[in-house]
Amino acid sequence: MRRLRLSFGLALGSAAILAGCNAGPNFKSPNPHLPGRWNGAAAAGATTRADPDPRWWRSFHDPELTRLIDRAAGGNLDLQQAVLRIAEARGQEIVAGAAGLPSISATGSYNRELLGLKGLLQQHGASNLTSEFPEAGPLLSQITKPIDLYQAGFDASWELDLFGRVRRSVEQAKAQTEEQVETANDALVSLEAEVAQTYAQLRGAQAETATLQDNLKAEDDILALTQNRRANGLAPQLDVESAVAARASTQALLPQYEKQAEQAINRLSVLVGEPPGTLQGELQTPAPLPPLPPDVPIGLPASLARRRPDIRLAEAQLHAATAGLGIAIAQLFPDVSLTGNAGLRSDRAKYLARWASLFYSFGPAVSLPVFEGGRLTAGVRIAKTEEAEAVIGYRKAVLNALQEVENALAAYRTDETQRAALADTAAANERALALSRDRYRHGISSFIDVLNAEHNWAQSRQQLIAATLAETTDLVALYKALGGGWEETIK
User: Fold this and answer.
1) Cβ within 8 Å of residue 95, ≥6 positions away
2) Which burial class, exposed, middle or buried, applies to 48 when counting CB atoms under 10 A from its CB (0-12, 13-18, 19+)?
3) Which of 41, 195, 210, 478 could anchor a disulfide with 408, C-beta 3.0 to 4.6 Å?
4) Which residues have CB under 8 Å from 439's CB, separation 6+?
5) What confidence score (pLDDT) does residue 33 get?
6) What is the rounded distance in angstroms from the CA atom of residue 107 to the CA atom of residue 122?
7) Can you list the residues of the chain whose pLDDT is less than 50?
8) Angstrom distance (rounded) from CA 182 to CA 273
9) Is the pTM for the entire model greater than 0.70?
10) Residue 334: which of 373, 364, 378 has the closest Cα?
């Protein structure tokens, strides 16, 4: 008995020593190999001296935009689903960790049993035993009757996890939780950008509508001028009809921008978690496009891997795949468990609580895979392949992030140049329209000159608004590519 206890103690000591061993490679954060500078930063007028503000939408100084993004962060249904998936993943962490803890369960049972001993005795010729040994009669009568068996106790088991299978499972579960966290962060960044871009489209459509209404007023003045000259015999009816046609053509453009504005309001309503049209009352009043900030801090590429949730997601996926490889390798080694049970057993309920009814058993159990038909080794190869895929996935995420930032910088730079040129064009066309109207009023030039000047002026104003909208959405896309907007919201 002493030697048994000594052996059992040595087994526990060995288990404690081996418990620090984990099969498979330990995870190390990958090097993203980011460049030292942005190619298009200087040309776009962006500064790398500071990182972008995590709440970048505040740089537009539009309180309505800020309120919409805050409402979307709290009410968007897709984001709420993503947060619930985080809770599910954290529950899986607990499940994985529980596999490494002792498992104890209470049991209780009652059985009425008939063992069939009377038939066995008859089969072996012991049915006349009582005639030879009368004193055995009561005993034989007792053991051949049905009996009641009461039992209560505990069953316990504990996997020692000598080779780290459970620990790797916990590590993988934690990495998978990080995956869900970063997935939610990425969804939040996309949501904030979509709200900002949709809001800009709304204000752009409203600005286009206001511009068209100004154009209609100018065309009303031109129509009145041609009608006056026609009444005085200074212009043909052709000029009047041309002015009417020009005004009708402008009027026909209004519905498309009204449609765009209404659709944008519907989209914003859904993004904040409300039915379409809910925001109609607070957004239908026209307002200008949010002013562009004078400075655009973008930071250095070196900080991009920490800011972009999709890169952080790819790193978490690589971590989970590395832990999965450890799990697969640990499957090749023996499983050692301690099992035991103890309780009280009696054929009479009133004796169940007596110490004399105690029973117990305990000891180690070892399970060693001998032949699995190649299943375990194939599992290791699959896990190695999944880890290699995750490495490539991480690198792809980094390259995609760099491309998105560089593309956004290029778009912002070129659209800013176009907007500046269109602003000069619109100003020049406005002056040309005033000159052509004055010359027409004095009979120096033809009405076609006025129509051309008015068309050029109206077209350049619309193009200027479209270019301003494009520059605004380009800036939003740049902020999204830089990965800000999640840091203080989802944890």
Assistant:
1) 173
2) middle
3) 478
4) 445, 449
5) 92
6) 36
7) 1-19, 490-491
8) 21
9) yes
10) 364
Amino acid at 166: V
- pLDDT tens-digit profile of 395-410? 999 999 999 999 999 9
Query: Average per-residue pLDDT in the chain?
Result: 87
Looking up tokens 């590395």 gives 322
CA distances from 102 to 13, 69, 156, 317 (A): 17, 48, 7, 30
Which position has the token pair 């409300």?
274
> Under CATH, domain 14-100+163-334+374-482 is a member of which superfamily?
Outer membrane efflux proteins (OEP) (1.20.1600.10)
Domain edges within the chain: 14-100+163-334+374-482
Confidence (pLDDT) at 294: 87
Whole-number Å distance between alpha carbons of 276 and 266: 4
Q: What sign does the CA torsion over 447, 449, 451, 453 have?
A: negative
Question: Which residues touch 202 (CB under 8 Å, ≥6 apart)?
Answer: 260, 261, 264, 265, 268, 283
pLDDT at 114: 66
